[in-house]
Design goal:
Elements: H1 16-28, H2 36-60, H3 66-90, H4 100-120, E1 123-125, E2 128-130
Antiparallel strand pairs: 1-2
Helix pairs in contact: 1-4, 2-3, 2-4
Transmembrane segments: 41-60, 67-85, 105-125
Keywords: Membrane, Transmembrane, Transmembrane helix
Protein name: Glycosyl transferase family 2
Length: 132
Amino acid sequence: MKSKAAIVHTALQPTWRSLLSQRIRWAAKTSAYKSFFGKAVGLTVLLMNFGLVVTFLGFASGFFPSNLLIIPFLLKFNIDFIMIFNGARFFGRENAMKNYFFSSLIYPFFSSYVAILSLFTGYHWKGRRFKK
């Protein structure tokens, strides 16, 4: 639903640790999704990000040529840019796009790390610890 009346605000996390815990909590909820489409999109995003990480590591260690990294990265970069820019425009936050390039380099590593941790670890939320 794309409606200004349906906007939900989430507080920024003050530390990397709390951000990581928040994202692990969100990732842990995905098993409860009922929508096949939602699960399929999530899995596609996860596989693309994880694939970029693996490809980067393969490139950095000399196993993969640079075009095997550059082509998927540019594809993801452009698709994500269009979607995120449209969201930023909807929220009146176009100025946040100045960080997009740097974020697009870091996010595949961060999201892959969160996904792996969410499978094996718990998280903290509202002063409580939840275990896997």
